[in-house]
Amino acid sequence: MTVLVASDLDRTLIYSTAALGLTMPDPVAPRLLCVEVHESKPLSYMTETAAGLLAELTADPSVVFVPTTTRTRKQYQRIRFPGRPAAYAICANGGQLLVDGVPDRDWRRQVAARLARECAPLEEVHQHLLSVADPAWLRKTRVAEDLFAYLVVERALVPDEWLKALTEWAESRGWTVSLQGRKIYAVPRPLTKSAAMHEVARRTGATTTLAAGDSLLDADLLLAADAGWRPGHGELADAAWTAPSVTALSAAGVLAGEEILRAFTREAARLGRLGA
């Protein structure tokens, strides 16, 4: 039996300093392992316990661990996970499928054809973002992998009414808007992590899929998996979102990463016993 474990990364398995959520007294705070450096500075962390759990999980030959992220390929490849290197990775919210670190061209062509059929073009959406964003709170604009766009903002200054209006505008054109920390993403609705997960399951012969994620862009992934987990923080937690196959954890911040990896490990072991 092969078990595919597809997990979102930021604020699910790995955490920036701002997202750690260390609410306990300093002397009992968990030891942290830096797993990402950017411009010579530490950027993302796991607890040492979570790192050990991930190394244990990836050492199991029946488990296919698939990092699954909205990050671009370049951003993803800054991360150095403990344990066995992942043979597959899903980047750009499903737009890029990496096989041993190399983008799969056939998958990218399939994605491009579907986007052309089903939603408004990227250029139209990007230009709209530029035209309606307020310089008072806009810090950066980015286009990722020629697939989607996002804004880096001062979150406290962005009016809720503006975000609601953008969401409605995007939905009428086949796009989804998601707020994650200081980033506002505009992503084509057909561009999904779940589609890429199903492709990896097909290629690896996985009989069961497990998933985790914290944001609106992870909802399709969680629904598509046989079992899923979401942390006690993020867009999905804020909306009290859940589903019959999804476990809503109470743990928040970096400790939620530990709980998610414990859940993956327990379920993979249970499935292994069933398949033995």
Give a written overview of the molecule:
The protein has 276 residues and is of the alpha/beta class. It is built from 9 helices and 15 strands. It has a 5-stranded parallel β-sheet, sandwiched between helices. The model has no long low-confidence stretch (mean pLDDT 96).
Helix-strand layout with pairing:
Layout: E1 3-7, E2 15-16, E3 32-38, E4 41-47, H1 48-59, E5 63-67, H2 73-76, E6 88-91, E7 96-99, E8 102-103, H3 105-118, H4 122-132, E9 138-144, E10 148-153, H5 160-171, E11 175-180, E12 183-188, H6 193-204, E13 208-212, H7 219-224, E14 227-230, H8 235-238, E15 246-248, H9 254-275
Parallel strand pairs: 1-5, 1-13, 13-14, 14-15
Antiparallel strand pairs: 2-4, 3-4, 6-7, 7-8, 9-10, 10-12, 11-12
**Overall 3D form:** globular
Q: Please report the distance between the alpha carbons of the first and last residues.
A: 8 Å
Strand content: 25-35%
Helix amount, in percent?
Answer: 25-40%
Q: Which sheet architecture does the biggest sheet show?
A: 5 strands, parallel
Q: Residue ranges: pLDDT <50 for 5 or more in a row?
A: none
State the strand order across the main sheet: 5-1-13-14-15
